[in-house]
Amino acid sequence: xxxxxxxxSEASVSVDGKVIGRSxxxxxxxxxxxxxxxxxxxxxxxAKISKLRIFKDEDGKMNRSIVDTGGSALVVxxxxxxxxxxxxxxxxxxxxxxxxxxxxxxxxxxxxMGKLGVAVETGRFGTDMAVSLVNDGPVTIWVEV
Length: 145
Known about the structure:
By secondary structure, this protein is an alpha/beta fold. Helix content is 22%, strand content 39%.
């Protein structure tokens, strides 16, 4: 699984002009299940992200995790993280998991984050969404398990 995480002051996701999920302060987590991902990948990815020390401590150093800060997460599926841009000008997405597997692993990831004590809201898998965010820092990190 792949994720692009952004430390946020706030974020929201809308479908057809209606906000369906929001978060902040905390993380916006864009998630993509890849072909061959197994059922243990959502747990591994959630464990990694929940422990990343990317929030400021009392000295202003990135030394605290989302769990340490009590932050929340907005988790949004994004198959385009599987983009292959090595040939031509049109990205290929064949490395992404099949939709049924992608949805199952995405939902499992969001549930695993919740089990770790992070308040989670989500987007809607397979839907055209509008994501708004205020990136804090900015801090943007690529994570893959």
